[in-house]
Amino acid sequence: TTKGETLYAFCMKNPQNEISIQALGKSTKYNNKTIASIELLGSKEKLNWKQENDKLIIQKPTKLPNWQVT
Length: 70
Prior knowledge:
mainly beta
């Protein structure tokens, strides 16, 4: 989902490991922009992430918000 220049990506279940999104890699046909920042809605924790040529990798946060997408 997008709103202006902001892209919202959803995990339908709590992640067990890192989150990998192939469509958001630097060299994919779906993405032509470098990602500037990543935030987890409902959390103030700084996320560790990297955008590789073929995917975006987000490290699982130490604490997840207490809600789920339904």
